[in-house]
Amino acid sequence: MDSHEISTHDAEADARNESLLIYVNGELVPKAEAKISVYDSGFMLGDGMWEGLRLYDGEWAFFDEHMDRLFNSLKSISIDIGMGPEDVRNILDQTAAANDMVSDAHCRLMITRGRKAKPFQHPGLSRYGPTIVAIVEHSKPAEGLQSRGIQLATVPQVRGLPTSQDPKFNSHSKLNCVIACLQAEQAGADEGLMLDPHGFVNTTNACNFFIVRRDEVWTSTGDYCMNGVTRAKVIELCRQNGIPVFERNFSLYEAYGADEAFLTGTFGAQTPVASIDGKTIGAEGGAGPVTRRIRELYKELVTETVARQRSVRGQKT
Ligand SMILES: Cc1ncc(COP(=O)(O)O)c(C=O)c1O
Question: pTM of the entire structure?
């Protein structure tokens, strides 16, 4: 595989993903037949929100946190799906069950403003209710990424101000991020390292970004990046385990000189960064003792959280 074909979302090949059942507006449909209208607001305008969730031992990890973000985003853009988080959980559970999945599965839940009466922008033309799709794939992050690490290139595309399109929106339109990814690829890297409007290091096109310097963990202030669930958990874990952690402005100067760097996201948990702009990070090419410790702590947290979620749900039923 060429380096530019590697991404933080590489999964082990799994033939079962060719014959999935996909949830589309109340029905479970074979993958080849899972379709939405060409008039759909998501297709036409990128007018929708999505969430990526992972299934561990029959539970959607950090489900409440994902639903908080999703429903907050939907409210912000005035999409009312007429259902609450528990209904969404039923959709996801139903889809996972139909595909015989208990663990190692990743869901892309997509909600758009729905089909439009005419092919124009006005939200009022989306008259038929939201479109809800859940794709759940068998998914094991490619192990090679942990040893190889990811190569980043700083890109001209920046994370914007909340007054243009709030970077906290997990919106269907990911064009800002796609452009950043293309720029990184053109520079021979795997993923783009994006700066904020002031030139401070912010995030990558698909994950949140952390560096480790002299045993301290640094990440951006959070003002211009996705409010990643994994990002928040890593910060929480550092605080609980005596690892100094700072949300602060820093520049490429500190990123290039970091001892370790890693990305966070629901899919890959923590992925080491091997290089930035061709400069090797740290002695071990990104991964190092602090990243490894955080990865272990995160694994334990997922196991504990999933067990707690299951027991709370058991008590309710
Ligand atoms: C731009 C961007 N940053 C970060 C993340 C990671 O967020 P999370 O940890 O909630 O998966 C995502 C994933 O949706 C993303 O699209």
Answer: 0.95
